[in-house]
């Protein structure tokens, strides 16, 4: 008996109609020092709905094909910053990248972000990244007595640094920066973004200290304005602009 | 195996853990063990706001907030705790502002406030603007601000350390905390942390559902660690289903969208909440709205070819308002659904969101071993805990509040306890259970796969213990979970290595989910009434005579090794509000 229900199941399984499954190849840069000192590319072919996320594809591979595939992830919708990786040569969050948007007709390459030591597959050592963040004193610095109620701040003053408050510390920007690739001592875009967030906060009184830190040999002057960071930011932060604003503040000492 | 000694150990680095750490680090030598880098925690996913009766934009006071919280929780709330929550909310928000949190501002420069579900003026008269917010990124800002202040205070983190066991020692018949056992993801090494005080702040357990707003990592690890050591879990049958998850994906779209004027509509374009909640309408409490959505869907007024969702309509709101107040959720709609919220309504369905139940504590965050006895040196705060300020249904914005108020309280209480008390001696072979668990999984040659069992669990939970429950559906779930627990003994993993073995950790997390799912379903089966997030179609009314009491679930192990769950009950603390019928 050809019931509508059966029809639908058949179609879904065959990959037609409203569930257009496709076959896609994921070419993943594998590295496991317990197995080999060399990294190598490995292809996985899977059937997947192209409206799904790259993270869904990685899960499918890990859960159904190869449990040793290793990556970080948590929230799966672009706010925790765990799963920054190089997808087709560009830094993105795997959970914010839909397969249909990266041409699944060709093999999709996935590798760890650059400039940080790869520890296993797509997992890198994040400690140098967070150290640079800590070095810019990423917290509100104030003088004098605290008010009883909240500090006042006009909506315009609040808006001034809104863009850089969005940072989720995923490292997509810093690990897309050619200066950072060549010299890990450079603070990198993410740390500067987080310094910017406080330098331009009207409540903060630590701007001079932070500017001195960023005036350092490894500070903002290393930036070559390639805009890779802005392109890479999954939160749409105008990273290069923020760095330029810090440079300008260093020259004029006005912020 | 390494052994560490700290005055205070905090398990988890989300909002509650970091708020506790800021207090505890100032007062005692503190270590924070966290399975994720702190800024990855799911506090960052919270969107809409944090409630506090600041009265910055209209008349409000903490007593109204207390009442709303108790009513929202369908009178299962412990009223002394709710009063503390609402009273201390004001300082909790001001403290965050002073720590640097970039709140939205009024034209005069004060912290701005918006409407949210269930929060009302004068005991239900009309919605009130009580939620302090930062766009639709309030949780993100709280998480970042707390992390920034942890950096400032020099808080010591152990990142990517999974706490897998709670060490409980019995001295003269009193259960005491001796420390925890953790697994280091990077190396596979096992660490014992001996501590005078331990605070659990490890978050929720939503991943036993399929459609959920919860992160992959929310697997109830803290609840499971305590439960396995004979400590009770309270009110686990109460789980919140947030009305507006992205259809099929479950990604959260804040209630703030309705606070800003968004409207829920069925396939006929009807604003159906007017029928179910004539006063609060789309801003009724979450359990009410989620049931209304499913009622619309069941009665054939759902949207789409399958009629399996409804719409969140923001199209009548000015694009500037959406950009300013709801930038992230509008972007989620564009990214994941490919639709433009300026012009198109967003398909939504209820999504498993928040565990009201958890590790029972008193208002200082001290964990209870039974209805009255505290476990010296053991604390819990945030979603992992049950104080209980949320009762049978949490109000929106009260969780960001909970983590700050009770995170702070437990941080102070634990550090003060550490200062006055000595270490409890570690049991012999403290890491034995974890070592055996890890070795068993690493060496197993069984045929069951983690993914298969987890998927079956999630589908079973969605089908049987979600918004609507009956004796039959819950029994189905209990039986299925028992089957899965049996099959879990035969689970094996592919990654046998030591470094970053997430395959192994997923298997352990699944074990936690299975234990907690069993507790949830068993507690739900016994509660033959409907209250807040627990709705029994076979018992559609609230039964205050028999069930105005908290469920306390204990794991029992018989001499022959068979495990079972023993249910007990604990009275609700009532101070000044007598139970009334709940209408919005």
Written account of the structure:
The complex is a heterodimer of chains A (255) and B (584). Chain A has 255 residues and is of the alpha+beta class. Chain A has two domains: 10-124, Ubiquitin-like (UB roll) (Roll), CATH 3.10.20.30; 127-252, Fumarate Reductase Iron-sulfur Protein, Chain B, domain 2. Chain A is 33% helix and 14% strand. Chain A has helices at residues 4-14, 54-65, 127-135, 155-160, 162-165, 178-182, 189-199, 207-214, 228-232, 239-252; strands at 22-30, 40-48, 84-87, 90-93, 108-111, 118-120, 123-124. In chain A, strands 2-1-5-3-4 form a five-stranded mixed beta sheet, covered by helices on one side. A two-stranded antiparallel sheet of chain A has the order 6-7. In chain A, helix 7 runs antiparallel to helix 8 (207-214). The termini of chain A are far apart. In chain B, strands 1, 2, 6, 7, 8, 9, 16 and 17 form an eight-stranded mixed beta sheet that branches. A four-stranded antiparallel beta sheet of chain B has the order 11-14-13-12, covered by helices on one side. A three-stranded antiparallel beta sheet of chain B has the order 3-5-4. The N and C termini of chain B lie far apart (56 Å). Chain B is of the alpha/beta class. Chain B has helices at 15-27, 62-72, 79-99, 138-153, 221-228, 256-259, 273-276, 286-298, 319-325, 327-337, 398-420, 432-443, 450-464, 471-488, 502-526, 544-547; strands at residues 2-11, 30-34, 50-51, 113-121, 126-132, 156-159, 161-171, 174-184, 190-200, 233-234, 239-246, 263-265, 310-313, 346-355, 359-360, 366-368, 374-380, 385-386, 549-557, 563-571. Helices cover 35% and strands 22% of the residues of chain B. In chain B, strand 7 and strand 8 (174-184) form a beta hairpin. Chain B is built from 16 helices and 20 strands. The chains are: A alpha+beta (255), B alpha/beta (584). At the A-B interface, helix 2, helix 3 and helix 4 of A face helix 3, helix 4 and helix 10 of B.
């Amino acid at each position: 008996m050809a019931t509508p229900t059966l029809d639908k199941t058949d179609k879904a399984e065959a990959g037609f109609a409203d569930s257009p499954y496709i076959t896609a190849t994921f070419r993943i840069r594998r590295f496991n020092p317990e197995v080999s000192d060399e990294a190598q590319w490995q292809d996985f072919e899977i059937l997947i709905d192209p409206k799904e996320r790259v993270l869904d594809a990685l899960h499918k591979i890990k859960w159904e094909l190869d449990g040793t595939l290793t990556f970080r992830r948590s929230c799966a919708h672009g706010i925790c910053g765990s799963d920054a990786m190089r997808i087709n040569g560009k830094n993105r969050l795997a959970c914010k990248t839909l397969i249909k948007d990266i041409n699944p007709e060709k093999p999709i390459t996935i590798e760890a972000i650059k400039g940080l030591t790869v520890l296993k597959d797509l997992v890198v050592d994040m400690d140098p990244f967070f150290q640079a963040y800590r070095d810019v004193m990423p917290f509100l610095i104030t003088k004098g007595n605290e008010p009883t109620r909240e500090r006042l701040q006009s909506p315009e003053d609040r808006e001034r640094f809104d863009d850089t408050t969005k940072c989720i510390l995923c490292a997509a920007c810093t690990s897309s920066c050619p200066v950072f690739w060549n010299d890990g001592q450079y603070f990198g875009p993410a740390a500067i973004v987080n310094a910017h967030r406080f330098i331009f906060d009207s409540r903060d009184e630590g701007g001079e200290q932070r500017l001195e830190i960023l005036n350092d040999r490894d500070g903002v002057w290393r930036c070559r304005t390639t805009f890779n960071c802005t392109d890479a930011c999954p939160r749409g932060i105008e990273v290069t602009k923020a760095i330029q604003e810090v440079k300008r503040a260093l020259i004029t000492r006005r912020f | 195996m390494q052994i560490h000694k700290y005055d205070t150990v905090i398990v988890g680095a989300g909002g509650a853990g970091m708020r506790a750490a800021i207090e505890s680090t100032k007062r005692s030598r503190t270590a924070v063990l966290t399975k994720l880098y702190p800024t990855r925690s799911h506090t960052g996913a919270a969107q809409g706001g944090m409630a506090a009766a600041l009265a910055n934009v209209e008349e409000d006071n903490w007593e109204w907030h207390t009442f709303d919280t108790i009513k929202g929780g369908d009178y299962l709330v412990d009223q002394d705790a709710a009063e503390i929550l609402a009273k201390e909310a004001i300082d909790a928000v001001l403290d965050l502002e002073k720590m640097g949190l970039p709140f939205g501002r009024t034209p005069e420069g004060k912290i701005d406030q918006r409407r949210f579900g269930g929060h009302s003026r004068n005991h239900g008269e009309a919605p009130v603007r009580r939620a302090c917010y930062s766009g639709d990124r309030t949780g993100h800002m709280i998480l970042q601000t707390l992390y920034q202040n942890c950096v400032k205070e020099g808080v010591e983190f152990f990142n990517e350390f999974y706490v897998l066991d709670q060490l409980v020692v019995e001295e003269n018949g009193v259960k005491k905390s001796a420390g925890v056992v953790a697994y280091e993801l990077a190396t596979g090494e096992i660490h014992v942390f001996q501590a005078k005080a331990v605070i659990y702040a490890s978050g929720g357990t939503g991943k036993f559902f399929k459609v959920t707003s919860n992160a992959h990592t929310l697997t109830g690890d803290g609840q499971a660690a305590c439960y396995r050591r004979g400590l009770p879990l309270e009110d686990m049958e109460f789980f919140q289903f947030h009305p507006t998850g992205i259809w099929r994906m479950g990604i959260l779209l804040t209630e703030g969208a309705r606070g800003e004027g968004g409207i829920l509509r069925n396939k006929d374009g009807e604003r159906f909440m007017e029928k179910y909640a004539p006063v609060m309408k789309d801003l009724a409490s979450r359990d009410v709205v989620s049931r209304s959505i499913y009622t619309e869907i069941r009665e054939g007024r759902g949207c789409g070819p399958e009629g399996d969702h409804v719409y969140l309509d923001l199209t009548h709101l000015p694009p500037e308002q959406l950009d300013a107040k709801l930038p992230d959720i509008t972007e989620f709609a564009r990214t994941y659904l490919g639709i433009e919220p300026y012009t198109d309504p967003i398909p939504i369905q209820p999504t498993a969101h928040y565990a009201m139940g958890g590790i029972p504590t008193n208002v200082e965050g001290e964990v209870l071993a039974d209805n009255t006895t505290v476990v010296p040196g053991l604390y819990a705060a945030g979603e992992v805990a049950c104080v209980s300020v949320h009762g049978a249904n949490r109000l929106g914005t009260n969780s960001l509040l909970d983590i700050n108020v009770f995170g702070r309280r437990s941080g102070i209480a634990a550090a003060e306890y550490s200062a006055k008390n000595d270490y409890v001696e570690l049991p012999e072979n403290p890491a034995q259970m974890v070592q055996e668990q890890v070795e068993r999984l690493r060496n197993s040659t069984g045929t069951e796969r983690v993914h298969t069992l987890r998927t079956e669990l999630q589908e079973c939970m969605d089908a049987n213990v979600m918004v609507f429950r009956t004796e039959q559906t819950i029994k189905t779930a209990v039986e299925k979970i028992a089957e899965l627990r049996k099959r879990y003994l035969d689970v094996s993993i592919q990654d046998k290595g030591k470094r970053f073995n997430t395959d192994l950790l997923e298997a352990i997390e699944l074990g936690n989910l299975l234990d907690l799912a069993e507790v949830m379903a068993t507690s739900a089966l016994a509660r033959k009434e409907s209250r807040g997030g627990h709705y029994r179609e076979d018992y559609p009314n609230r039964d205050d005579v028999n069930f105005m009491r908290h469920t306390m679930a204990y794991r029992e192990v018989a001499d022959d090794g068979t495990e079972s769950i023993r249910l007990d009950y604990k009275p609700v603390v009532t101070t000044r509000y007598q139970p009334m019928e709940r209408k919005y």
